[in-house]
Amino acid sequence: MNRFTGIPSRWNGRAEQPPRPAAEEPGASAPTIALPRTPRAAVGSIVAALVALSLAACASPDRGGASAPPACAPAATAPPAAADAAVDASSGRLQWRGGPTAILERDGLRLLTDPVLGPRGPSVFVLPKHPSTGVENAPIARYTDPPAEPIGHLDVILLSHNHADHFDAVAKETLPKDVTFVLPPDAVAAARAAGFTKLTPLDWDQETVLPTRAGRLRILAVPANHTHDAALDATLGKGNGYVLRWEGAAPYSIYWTGDSVFTEPMRAVAARFAPIDLWLPHLGAVGVDGARGLRTMDAEEAVAAAALLRARHVIPIHHTTFAHYREPVTAFTQRAASKNLPAQIHVPTDGAWMPLPR
Fold first, then answer.
1. What is the average per-residue pLDDT within 93-107?
2. Which of 21, 138, 177, 324 is the most exposed, having the fewest neighbouring CB atoms within 10 Å of its CB?
3. Of 115, 135, 145, 110, which Cα lies nearest the Cα of 21?
C-alpha cells in the first residue's frame, strides 16, 4: 500500500527513485495567521505577532543539501487531529501538502494541484539549471516530508506546467492513471508517457466544465509567465494558471497562479474576474538572486497583484518546502500588513485541513 496515495504501489526501485527521507523529524511550524481587515492602528499589533512567531524575512539560500528548512521559514508539523477533517465539505476545504501541492474539496469534487509527492532529502529532483546560481543539473533539497495522510480519492489533477518541481517521479508512478487530468498542451506528452489516460489539455483562455453536486465547476486556463524575460519565458515553456468558478446556489471563485510573475496577463485576469474569493499565489521569489531575475512572485509583486485582484482571501503556497525558494512567507505577510492590504491572509500549516474562507 503506497503511503502517498493509499493505493497499491507499482514503485519498482528504478534509478529515478528519490532518496529516502532523512532520519530526523522536521521542526514545529508557525500557526496559521489571518490578517483581518483592520484599520492602521491594529496593523502594528499584527506585525508584532508575526515577528514573535517567526524570524524576520530573509532570503533562504541553498543549505548544501540540508534536510531541514531555513531558520527563517516555518517548518511542517504532523497532520492535525481528526476533528479538523470534519469540516463541512459542502463549504469546501483545503489541505496544503508542501510546495505547489494542495488538495481542494468543494461541492463534491476533490482536486489536486501540481503533485510533488516525494519524501524529503538532499536531492529530491534535479533542475536543468539552478535559477539562482545557474549551475547545471542542480540537485534540489526538500526540507519537509509530505503529510503522512494519504491523498486518497481524486476527481481532478490540475497541472500548471511540466517541471520536476511541479510533477515529480513519485507522482508519475503512484497517482491513479484514470483521473481527469487538466494540463497545458506542452505537458501532454509527459503525462501520457507516465500512463495517464484522461487528459484534458487547455491552452490559454480555454476551459472545461465539470458537474458538481449542486451545480458545475468551470476550469479556465490563464497565462502563467514564468519570468519577465521573454526569451527565458519561452525557453521554460508555456504554463497555465487556472481560474476555478463554482456555479450554483453558493458560487465561489479561486485563482491559482501556477509559477507566474506579476505581468500584464495577470492584470487582465484581474480586470476580468475581480473580485476573487480566494487567491492561491506561488511565492518563494525563485530566481530573485539569479542573473535573470524572478521565476515566481516575491512579496512586493504578490501584494500588488492581490490588491489589483481585490482578493477577499489569500492562502500563499509554494514557499518553505524546497531549497530553491529564496524568500520566506513572512516577507509576504509583513509587506501585506505594511501596505494595509484589505485581503485576509491565511498562512497554511503543512498537512492541516482548513475551510475555504468566505
1. 98
2. 177
3. 145
- In tens, the pLDDT along 272-315 reads 999 999 999 999 999 999 999 999 999 999 999 999 999 999 99
Total Cβ atoms within 10 A of residue 226: 27
Query: Strand pairing partners for 210?
Result: 217
Chain position carrying cell 503556497:
317
- Helical segments of the chain, H only: 40-53, 169-174, 188-193, 230-236, 264-273, 299-309, 329-338
CB 273 within 8 A of CB 296: no
Q: Which of 333, 238, 236 is nearest to 286 (CA)?
A: 236
- What is the Cα Rg of the chain in Å? 19
In the numeric block, which cell numbers belong to residue 249? 446556489
Burial class (CB in 10 A: 0-12, 13-18, 19+), 271: exposed
Burial status of residue 68 (CB atoms within 10 A of its CB: 0-12, 13-18, 19 or more): middle
Distances (CA, A) of 302 to 283, 311, 336, 352: 8, 11, 9, 23
Query: Is there a contact between 77 and 341 (Cβ–Cβ < 8 Å)?
Result: no
The DSSP result for 206-259, as a single string, is -EEEEE-SSEEEEEEEEEE-S-S-HHHHHHH--EEEEEEEEEESS-EEEEE--S
Give the whole-angstrom CA distance, residue 78 versus residue 351.
Answer: 7
Q: What is the rounded distance in angstroms from the CA atom of residue 187 to the CA atom of residue 160?
A: 9
Whether the predicted pLDDT of 66 surpasses 50 = no
